[in-house]
Write a structure and sequence with these properties.
homodimer, 149 residues, alpha+beta, eight-stranded mixed β-sheet, 3 helices, 19% helix
């Protein structure tokens, strides 16, 4: 496997509304997405854009807030009530190849490959096998793709 | 302030040597810097490059390992023995303006402005004021600059 783009870092927050105000008013973010629910993951999501080099798109901040007390994120926020860094997400060109790669290495994959916040297939790898970092692998969005089948 | 480039994310590790092997052999990193000591911060540092969009430089992974038991990082690793996400670092064009901005907002700045791992001035902001995220602010490197005075 070849290391892909760091698409986003996931930042847990008890309140996406408060985080949006923070990134906009304190950190000076100019491009803030519309929050939306991702019920499969039990989270509400909002992307904050950061600038990349030479006018390109940089790594995004993915704000994630629990959708309810059953969310897997609730435990993280119980330990970190202010929120905090939750995961990192790297892009790959082929999600099936990437899954086979990590499976072949005996890495613990958390659940099936599913559709993530950017509408492309993703899976998560357990931090215990990834030097302590919860790691999401995401297929790079391509124009004209149809992931619904 | 305007949100700058996410220069790097800081990832704590008990062993930079093990992390280099992990990023190279498991994650497929192709550009791995030479590790070096940063005694002012009590850490050994190594940068892993990730690709940005359209051939640009992406956000780096800054591996940090305690230089000794007195390192401020030792407490983090005692709580997270495998390592884990430690901080994020955003670029600004003027470090003094940025410091004045955060001071004016009453944010808790950790120590004086000093020279960071990329050779430009940096400071850290306490996670309690930054939605739980330890945040480094770093002046963008410029050619021909002299930070020694």
């Amino acid at each position: 496997m070849k290391l892909g783009r760091l698409n986003h870092i996931g930042v847990a927050t008890p309140s996406i509304a408060d985080s949006i105000a923070y990134y906009r008013d304190i950190m000076g973010a100019t491009t803030v997405g519309e929050p939306f629910d991702l019920p499969e993951q039990g989270v509400k999501v909002c992307f904050i854009d950061t600038p990349g080099q030479s006018g390109t798109e940089g790594t995004q901040i993915e704000l994630i807030e629990p959708l309810g007390p059953e969310s897997t994120l609730s435990g993280f926020l119980a330990r970190n009530p202010l929120g905090g860094q939750h995961h990192v997400c790297y892009e790959v060109t082929d999600i099936n190849e990437a899954r086979a790669w990590f499976e072949g290495l005996g890495k613990h994959i958390l659940g099936p490959t599913r559709i993530g916040a950017h509408g492309t297939p993703i899976f998560f790898l357990h931090p215990k096998d990834m030097m302590g970092v919860l790691t999401e692998i995401m297929e790079t969005p391509r124009e004209g793709s149809d992931w619904s089948n």
